[in-house]
Amino acid sequence: MEKGCRQWKGTGEYNRACGVIFQKERKKRKLSLETMASGLLSRTALRKMETGESGWQKLVGDTLFQRMGIWPDYFEMLASSEEMERWRLREDICLLIFDHPLETEAKMREYGEKYGTQEPLEEQFLRKAELLRLLKDRAENAGGEHSCDEEKLLRMAEETVSCTLSGDWKGNLTAMPAAPSELEAVLLDGWVRMTCGRHEEAWKRQSDVWEYPERHKWEDRMTVRIRPQAALLGIELALQEKDSRKAFRLGREALELLRRNSCHCYLLPLLEGLERIPGGELWLAEQEYQRQAAGFRNAFQRIYDQFGYPGHRIWQGITVGNTRDVGITLKMLRKYAGKPRSQAVSDEEGIIVTGRQLEKIEKGEHKPSYENYQRLVRQYGKSGSWMEPMLETDSLEVLKLRQEIATLIGFCEWDRAERETERLRGKVNMDYPKVRQELLFFEALKVRRAGELEKGLELLLEALQVTAPDMKNSDKKWWVFQREEIMIASNIAGTLRKLGKMEEAKAWYEIIVFSLEQQSNGTDVKHTGYDMLMEGIDNYLGNLGRFEEAVEANKEAVRNYLKQPQIDTLARALYRIAWDTYEMASEQDVSTEMFRNIWKNAFSMSKVVADFMYDNYLMEFLEKRKEKYLI
What we know:
By secondary structure, the chain is an all-alpha fold. The protein has helices at 11-14, 17-28, 33-37, 43-51, 58-66, 81-96, 101-114, 120-141, 150-162, 169-172, 180-195, 199-215, 220-223, 227-240, 244-260, 267-276, 284-306, 326-337, 355-363, 370-378, 396-410, 414-425, 433-449, 453-467, 483-498, 502-519, 530-543, 547-561, 570-587, 593-612, 616-623, 626-630, and strands at 75-79, 323-325, 346-347, 350-351, 387-389. The strands form 2 sheets. The protein has a 3-stranded mixed β-sheet with strand order 2-1-5. Strands 3-4 form a two-stranded antiparallel ribbon. A hairpin with a 2-residue loop joins strand 3 (346-347) and strand 4 (350-351). The chain is globular, with a radius of gyration of 25 Å. It starts with 10 loop residues before the first helix and ends with a helix.
């Protein structure tokens, strides 16, 4: 908690932390409850979320933070099984929409039939998908008999925006709060207008969205969720008007934004757009940049093709890498504690739910009330919150600082990470468990890096035990590992491996993998911290000489990384494939020729991705090893 802020007085207060943060940010921007709630939910419902009287809904809650320019991965979320299932079905539509039209239509029908009652954001998503389908059909049929008429397209486009944005969004979009997913609807309206030959109106939509993040002082990590899409429309409009320089400027700015943020949302379409710009009309430096972009396009196309991932897809307005299923969470905590359902249905206040009700909750058939969930998890030493910050704080500044430190550590910028950690110490209250855990973790990494493995292990175990109860008499694999706990536990396993305690390391890895698999069953998306776990597993398998298993584990890791907008760990996983394949060839009494293309390809892709992300540490590391893998 930031020093000087009010103190929380127990779990009830703690559970309102996110509401407090939301309210502070809303008031700082001078936004009323009515303005923020507009098009999404009622003013009363938002007030209850803000005061902690009701739980946060995943889709609406994330969008509310995004409307203020805040990407909500500073928090860990809980969602019902139905919310997660809806996300999964929308994700299927996102992945299929450009290359599999029949399957897309089937999924959209399934969504409408399965979930008759839809939130405005869901309706907007489905309308956007239908518009994209019609635009694609119109382009392929060139106005043929199956092509949708212009008036219908224009009407559909306006109705899509108006699902959540009311008022004069055509003339004064900047005046209203809007999330990236809502701004995408405005861009689609621009695409329709361009298709219908109304270029001036299309440029108005493009410029309104392009300028929106800067006018609202969004950070890069939010801006990257909409600028590439705006650039795509701008490039197409500029090319139709034969303004190559403008098309190039838009494309380069959007691409650099993706690179700075290690993000691949709409990357392939953007690279293809840059490639379509006539190079003869560009300056020499711009032509060189265009050639570099073409290299990125070739590399990412190979990566997508090799790992079976669609380079052309759309992205939802939310991700679930920081979200857990309520029912699965309750089931895991109960099994961790070794309790039958009959002993998990009551607390000191009396019966919470019946055994039958708890069974249905754990299966995802029922959703517990916010109050009942709080009471159920309190038995296991967990705070009962639908949404909680990574640290006990009501300061967004502190949460941003913590995120920056984690990023610096990921890029091995240790000196800067140490300086920022000292800043963090001055802004937090060490009495809070998650704050104490975070600083113990950073200290353990520092000590371990200095070679003091035993001391590092002690600090890591101490850090984990701050939030995880005594594991001696419990089935550890059922613990609901949250993102920080995943990273700490993975480092414990890695340290044991370095100390030569391979059986203990194996046990820890198996525990973490099992926990993550349970939590990702409904979404097929791994939680934050999975990347650190997979790097540790690779090292463990390498120490045992099990290189073939390591290669397969890393291939699966790459497939999982591509499902997320951020790909900051992709280059390292590709390098591990190269390393493991090279070592496997060295170990086996066969010609290395059959392996050579595999490691050369993986190493080359790793180099390009590291260059794409401006990962200087990894680029320097790979440069020293290129002769080994590329000759």
